[in-house]
Amino acid sequence: MSATILLIEDNLSLSALVCDYLTLSGYACITAMDGTAGLELALAGNFDLMILDIMLPGIDGFEICRRFRESSDIPLLLLSARREDIDKIRGLGLGADDYITKPFSPGELMARVKAHLARYQRLTGTESGKKNPLVSIRGLSLDAVAKTVTIAGRMVDLTPKEFDLLQLLMTNPNKVFSKEELFDRIWGEDRHGDISTVTVHVRKIREKIEEKPSEPRYLETVWGMGYRIRIA
Fold first, then answer.
1. How many domains does the chain have?
2. For the chain, which terminus, N or C, has the lower number of CB atoms within 10 Å?
């Protein structure tokens, strides 16, 4: 299983460049453009590594680092145009694993990403690349190993396809998937029925996890685009 990396960077062109390099290197890349959204993603998602800019709108990278380190020990790489030693000392003191100054070579960044992932996997005994099986978003929890879903502690009874669909959405929070992409990813070669089955399964999942299925808090429709699990 390829690693999933969270990139929090407010420079759109740099974010796109780094994400392209990560994708070409075989990683899944989830992005956020400001500190508030980035922290929400970091705390709700199931990531293998984070790349975090220091100067961000909303919440700065130092604060994200501090709060994230209270609950996770995955590799965390700081990016900054500031070269002062005090910033490096502060970032590393808050729990960052590396400090990379801008401008930087994308190739060097990929090498550091690979090295930190390999080191973390060796230390945690997860060389196979398996992730923490538990994903939790605002009281909605999914265990990929036990194949269970709970909402506010209550067990939810899902069919295998409903579980697979919800798992894909929850492990990619805030990412919008089109009906076509969901149909391809979940049903694959087992294509009984047509694309309308996606809509049917979304409706059934909502009936089981949403307090008001007509006003979903979790499984959101993005009109004209598809569906996503909303993290806030």
1. 2
2. N
Which one of 124, 152, 177 terminates a domain?
Answer: 124
- Both structure tokens of 15: 């974010």
- Please tell me whether residues 62 and 146 are part of one structural domain: no
pLDDT in tens, 50-92: 999 999 999 999 999 999 988 888 899 999 887 778 888 888 8
* Per-residue pLDDT tens over the stretch 107-130: 999 999 999 998 887 776 655 545
Structure-block tokens of residue 230: 């909303």
Mean pLDDT over 98-111 rounds to 91
**pTM of this prediction?**
0.57
Q: Is residue 129 part of a domain?
A: no
The vertex-28 CA angle with 26 and 33, nearest 5°, equals 135
Taking residues 210-224, report their average pLDDT: 93
Same domain, 115 and 221: no
To the nearest 10 degrees (0 to 180), the angle between helices 61-68 and 35-44 is 20
Are residues 118 and 177 both part of a single domain?
no
Task: Give the torsion through C-alpha atoms of 92, 62, 218, 134, to 10 deg.
Answer: 20
Q: Which residues contact 109 (CB under 8 A, 6 or more apart)?
A: 18, 21, 51, 77, 100
Q: Which of 211, 231, 198 is nearest to 156 (CA)?
A: 211
